[in-house]
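User: Can you help me understand a structure? I only have the sequence.
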Amino acid sequence: MQQTLMTAVLLLQVISALAMIGLVLVQHGKGADMGASFGTGASGSLFGATGSANFLSRSTAVAATIFFVATLALAYFGNLRGASSQGASILEQAASAPAAASAPAAASAPVVPASGAALIPSK
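Assistant: Let's start by predicting it. Here is the structure, written out as tokens:
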């Protein structure tokens, strides 16, 4: 159940990210109207001169809101899943893993210096 919900939120996040990219690329910059005022550019568009900015700006804001809400939901579900499955945080697991792995190896392996300084012959 939780895995399917997490997959759905991830899909929603990817779709909103792609929509945001597309909406930002379709919008024209603030300086685009200045060239149109001198007659060198075409200021008309599908939605009209000011209607496109309002529609595209609002659509981008909605896509960004959906993206951020989906990101927060993924972070929440990821933290929930990590805490319930192992009982310890990732940092606690990383801190205990090298100590547990090096304990049996230290008893059987000879001590080797970390650098090659011991291998250089002295005069």
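Now, to help you interpret it: The CA atoms of residues 78 and 84 lie 10 Å apart. The chain is about 70% helix and 0% strand. Let me know which part you'd like to focus on.
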